[in-house]
Amino acid sequence: MCVVELTSGGTSMFDDSKSMMRRMSALAGVALMTGFYSNAAAQEQPAAAEPAAAESWGDDGGFEFDTQEAQPLGEATPVARMMDEGLKRLAREDFAGAAASFWSVLQDPDISADAIRPRAQFEMGKALMKLKMYEGATVFFEEIVRSGPVHPYFEATAPWMMLLSRRVPGDPAMLSRISAFGSLFPDRIDAKYRDEMAFLLGQNAFNQGELESALSYFALVSPDSIFWARSLYYKGITFVRQYDAQPAVDAFKALLALDGKGAEAEEGKRLNEMAMLAMARTFYSTGEFEKSLRLFEGIPLGSSTWLDALFESSWAHFQLAQSNRALGNLHSLNSPFFSAQYYPEAPILQAVILFESCRYTGVRKTLDLFDDVYAPLLQQLEALATERTSDLDYFGFYEASESKLATDFDPRLQQITRAALSDRSVREAEAFVRQVESERAALSKLPAEVVAGPFGQYLAGKLDGELGLAQTNLGGLVRRRMERITGELRTKRREAEAIRVEVDLSEASLLKAQKAMGAVGEVPDVVSETRPAWYQMAWPFEKEYWRDELGHYSYHIASKCR
């Protein structure tokens, strides 16, 4: 008879994510900068129009205008007077009016506008930032970035692009734009922005697979920066990608030693938990299973990584021949608390453990349950792939998922879709779509003369185009995740079939051996006694799950192998 018992008590704490989708950057129909100025024109720019010190912001992202930048140009040409008007409107916080004035300067065909057009472009970006139209601002700042150091406001744009990376973290092309300032780093970047720039350049290099370059940038982030904790985590996972375990562990240990410091409170907690999980995986990969277990068990219940840690610790217990604890963890995963989670590998591991104990009937029951749940699910996923062939199709699937899955699809498909699409990158991509949508709606609320005018129409077209790209990007992420799930399920089904074959062969071999020994029949169960530690108490499982018991089950079975 199998006895499932619960032991509860304290857990031991350890003491010690590519290709970047690039934005469609051609601004067809209106040439804002290309060909409008030359080096000579830039040199002739009046002193008052020289790039002022870059705007600053605190940790909260706030920023202020330099008063010198709001001074009028003092020139008599009509286009200069329009520029003056835009600066005055900017100073009195009429940001929509200022943007309309700067647009007029950018579109003026008069050759006298060439010398001040670069500044109008820069000021336009600032005005749109103040309107919280961040993607609109990106349109104009990006043109400065594309022009490169020849643009007189190229350096002044760097901190604004860093601010944009905070405001719209889901923009897939943002890090690529920021990497354009790498030639200015560190000497030409203001000291107060260097830590952030170093981290962002390192993050971009990591995403591009340039791991040595990424490490060199992360090493330049100072320990007193709010980016220090993030840089340590990225250093750790960079070393993991290089299959260099010891420096990876050292980076994760340094992050854990901060105890949440060096970052905002919530982020610090999240990074600590991610570091513990990453370090546990690193120890597991090097065969140090006991160390990995201490880390897995140190991740608290309620953490976003706790379920992953619970499942992966089952493998560590299995490797240490602690099958009862491994099965206990899998028992926790089967609780109603986690019915919406997706761990198809769990029944495969359970079948392997039962197989090693020669419990062939239990193996078959486990694999039958796996087939009952996942075979129909795989069919639905394959049908989904047949019906949807483009990224925009998958964006539509994502948008309709709540209502459509509730009526048309099996509840299990709804559950795994939610689990698969809770990924941080998917959430950020969705947030980016919502940001562009909100900017498009905000544009319609500007003064009627702005909305109906050439500038409003131009910006509306740009936002519509950006929205299409953002939706395609999100749909692509969804498609790749659904394809990955489909591939995983096919693999697990093949593994399940392989286990079935092994069960048949092993059972036949065992029966043959028993017959030769004259002892045909099942080996009786041996009921083992639970021996909790001095700080633990034990209760038998009575078909009820309690939240504080999760992760502390021990599923006691004895081997039937002779």
Briefly, what is this?
By secondary structure, this protein is an all-alpha fold. 60% of the residues lie in helices and 2% in strands.
How would you characterize the overall build of this protein?
This protein has 562 residues and is mostly helical. Among the domains are: 19-49 and 60-178; 370-501, no CATH class. The protein contains 23 helices and three strands. The protein has helices at 39-43, 78-91, 95-107, 117-130, 134-147, 154-167, 174-178, 194-207, 211-218, 228-241, 245-257, 265-285, 289-298, 306-319, 323-333, 345-356, 360-387, 391-399, 401-408, 411-420, 424-443, 448-452, 454-517, and strands at 3-8, 537-540, 553-556. Strands 2-1-3 form a three-stranded antiparallel β-sheet. The longest helix has 64 residues, at 454-517. It starts with a strand and ends in a 6-residue tail after the last strand.
Low-confidence runs (pLDDT<50, min 5 residues)? 1-73
Distance N to C terminus:
18 Å
Helix and strand run = EHHHHHHHHHHHHHHHHHHHHHHHEE
The secondary structure category is mainly alpha
* General shape: elongated
Strand order of the largest sheet: 2-1-3
Number of strands: 3
Summarize the main sheet: 3 strands, antiparallel
Indicate the radius of gyration in whole angstroms.
30 Å
**Residues in helices, as a percent range:** 55-70%
Structure keywords:
disordered N terminus, elongated, 60% helix, three-stranded antiparallel sheet, 562 residues, mainly alpha, 23 helices
